[in-house]
Amino acid sequence: MSQKSSEPDMSIGEVARRVGVRTSALRFYEDEGLLPPAQRVGGKRRYEQGAVARLLMIRFCQQLGFTLAEIRELATPKRGRNGKQEWRDLVDRKLTEVDRAIEQALAVKLLLEESRECDCVSPESCGFVERVDPLASPG
Length: 139
Prior knowledge:
mainly alpha, Multidrug-efflux Transporter Regulator, Chain: A, Domain 2, 2 domains, three-stranded antiparallel β-sheet, 3 strands, about 5% strand
């Protein structure tokens, strides 16, 4: 008799290997509400195939720079809400964040390149120090 695909048949180690994470990551994602708690069989965690898909989605979103809270928001089904629009809204917010980070990084790079050629004896006497806005956010 063969097992149904919806029955939990994978150990925590097998799921971790398939996704390329440590078993502690699975327990962490369960604790954070990102991964449904595994069923217990003989006191051991057993996962359905859907856990692999969920973990791959979590890793993908992390690689895109989404926070765990943002991933949780995405992974939580909403009633009457268009999932595609929710994804687009989240991506648009992330793109705005990334654009801001790129602007800040380019400004830092320019300042580093310019200050590298500075002839000042110490940072305290450097004219570049005076150009930094003390009220600006770091970075």
